[in-house]
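In response to the reviewer comment on reproducibility (Comment 2.3), we provide here a single inverse folding case reported in full, input and output, so that an independent group could reproduce the run without further information from us. The C-alpha cells appear first.
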C-alpha cells in the first residue's frame, strides 16, 4: 500500500474535520464541519448554508484545505482541494435535497422524519459543498 493509499483509507474512518477557506483579506477562515468521503472519487461532501462565511469565500475562491484529525494528536490527514458548490435547495424533492439526504444518511443514519428534514433543507437554504482532493499529506 502506498502512502497516498494509506492516507485515503484513513479518511473513511472519520466524519469530522476542519475546513480552511480564504477570506477577502487573504487570511484563513476555519470551520469545524462533518463530512462524507468517497476514497474512489476522492470527494468530500459537506452540508452547509448559503449565508455561511465558508460558502461566500468558496464562491469567490474555490481553493480550500481540509484537515481531518486522526486517532491521536500526532495523526492527521490534510487535503488540498478544489471546491464545488451545488445550487441552493429550492424544493423538498429536488436533486440538492436528495444529495443532502445521502450526506445525512452516511454521517448519521436514518432521520426520524424525512419529510420534515427535506422541508428544513429548503427553509435553511442548504446546499452541498463538494471538495475534490488535489493532494494529500499527513501522518
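Designed residues, in position order:
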Amino acid at each position: 500500500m502506498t502512502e497516498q493509499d494509506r492516507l485515503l483509507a484513513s479518511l473513511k474512518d472519520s466524519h469530522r474535520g476542519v475546513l480552511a477557506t480564504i477570506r477577502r483579506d487573504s487570511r484563513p477562515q476555519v470551520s469545524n464541519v462533518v463530512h462524507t468521503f468517497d476514497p474512489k472519487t476522492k470527494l468530500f461532501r459537506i452540508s452547509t448554508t448559503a449565508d455561511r462565511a465558508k460558502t461566500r469565500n468558496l464562491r469567490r475562491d474555490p481553493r480550500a484545505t481540509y484537515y481531518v484529525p486522526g486517532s491521536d494528536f500526532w495523526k492527521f490527514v490534510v487535503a488540498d482541494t478544489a471546491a464545488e458548490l451545488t445550487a441552493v435547495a429550492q424544493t423538498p424533492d429536488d436533486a440538492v435535497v436528495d444529495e443532502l439526504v445521502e450526506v445525512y444518511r452516511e454521517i448519521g443514519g436514518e432521520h426520524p422524519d424525512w419529510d420534515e428534514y427535506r422541508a428544513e433543507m429548503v427553509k435553511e437554504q442548504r446546499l452541498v459543498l463538494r471538495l475534490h482532493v488535489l493532494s494529500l499529506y499527513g501522518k
